[in-house]
Amino acid sequence: MDDTIEIGNRGDFGLWAIEVAKQLVADQGFELARAARDGNDDDVRAAGNALGQAITNALMEVYDGLTDGIDEE
Fold first, then answer.
1. In b/e form, how buried is each residue of 10-48, taking b as 16+ CB within 10 angstroms?
2. 53, 7 contact by CB (below 8 A)
3. What count of other Cβ atoms lies within 10 Å of the Cβ of residue 60?
4. Cα–Cα distance for residue pair 24/22, rounded to 1 Å
5. What tens digit of pLDDT does each residue of 4-42 get?
6. pTM (predicted TM-score)
7. Helix, strand or coil for residue 66?
């Protein structure tokens, strides 16, 4: 998610969302699956929270990019 892309339309946003989802599943999804298989309830909770935070971070990243240049009141 470090690469800058230009989102100019719905299709661009869809492509961005697909790429981010693939990265999140590869990283955080694996950790959640491993915690579910090998861990206890606390491990699963922590991995689930990390996945949720990664999703939130991705959404905030694109939101911030969409609002750059808009004056805040």
1. eeeeeebeeebeeebeeebbebbeebeeeeeeebbeebe
2. no
3. 10
4. 6
5. 777 788 888 888 889 888 998 898 889 999 999 999 999
6. 0.71
7. helix
